[in-house]
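Work Package 3 (structural annotation) set out to generate three-dimensional models for the target panel prioritized at the project kickoff. During this period the team completed the workflow that converts sequence records into discrete structure tokens, so that structures can be stored uniformly alongside our sequence database. As a representative example, we reproduce one entry of 160 residues exactly as it appears in the project archive.
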Amino acid sequence: MFGRRTLNSIAFFSCGLALAGAALGSDASPYLGTWVLNRAKSNFHGDPGYQSQTMTVTDAGDGMLHYAFDLVDSEGKSSHVEYGTKLDGKSHPIANSAFFDSNKSEPLGSRKVKWTVMKDGNAVAWGVDRVSKDGKTKYETENWQHDGKLFSYQLVFDRQ
């Protein structure tokens, strides 16, 4: 069974991946900046989720976006993670992770993206992200399945 830290690692990686897909599929400027989890408006099913999360998205050039995450998990442990990603409709490897090894994103419009994170060719997490028309709020539906149990988050992020 995944531990809470493992599930939280998958969740915050997936949030950034999906936002990157939306940004690279359209004008990136509304997606760059700092996003903060609005825990009061978010729902966590099958896991207590994390206490807080802040993600900073910057343009790394050549279609790449750089992500920096600061997270406090459900047990109060802090983490910092950074990675880059690119949307081009292909599966991309993820280095240095015990939880996932590749990802794929598909734009569903100018502010919406469907994404999948995989390990050994199997989906570990999947979902859909949508950024509001005014660019101030990001909504994410995220799912993962492990050992026959489904975990689901409905997350809301506010742009700072």
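The radius of gyration is 14 Å.
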